[in-house]
């Protein structure tokens, strides 16, 4: 296989998986470990990836956010498991905030429609799915962000300040030991901060690919929300547990 073709395959693998190991690349690239290490070094020098021990990870763009359709295709099974676990935390008569995002959207099929709950959301798609299940739903007003269908802005914040929640289920783009919870958009970050402040219990739903990732805008410290995630490395799990409660599903 030609060098350029190997490089393209490595970058394509990172688009799908965020993190890849050298062991995972050996067979598809039909190359030796030393050759793949040189390929990763070259691509890092070009600013196209970041090498890590035993492999590489996608280079982050702090202010970039994929649209909903792109996000839904990634880590789908993990999001379903996270969503199912989160939905089971909702109890009869709860007043719940469900944040915009694909991880929180994965909750909705698993929510028991007979719990007599009220749900507030800043997502057009979430609201439609909740209404289909005949769940009492309040959708916040404001400007719709086309890429994520999240509703943000001054009027959104004004409305949100009037409400109080038993539980909030939040989407985040990153959860980092030093940088806390982050998201690319400052306006979305403001809405997330308000929802967290208005809630008795807060759960951050994010698959393990978002752990130790950082986006542009700080939302909250790790101690402000329990993390529900997919399987993560044991050493990272122990460090996270020093700052917050974390549940693997």
Automatic annotation (TrEMBL):
Q: Which Pfam families match?
A: DeoRC (PF00455), HTH_DeoR (PF08220)
- Ranges for domain HTH deoR-type come to 3-58
InterPro entries from the UniProt entry? Carb_Metab_HTH_regulators, DeoR-like_C, DeoR_HTH, NagB/RpiA_transferase-like, Tscrpt_reg_HTH_DeoR_CS, WH-like_DNA-bd_sf, WH_DNA-bd_sf
Keywords of the record, alphabetical order, are: DNA-binding, Transcription, Transcription regulation
Q: Which GO terms describe its molecular function?
A: DNA binding; DNA-binding transcription factor activity
The protein's name is HTH deoR-type domain-containing protein
Q: Among its keywords, does the record have Transcription?
A: yes
* The organism of origin for this protein: Enterococcus columbae DSM 7374 = ATCC 51263
What the entry lists under PROSITE patterns is as follows: HTH_DEOR_1, HTH_DEOR_2
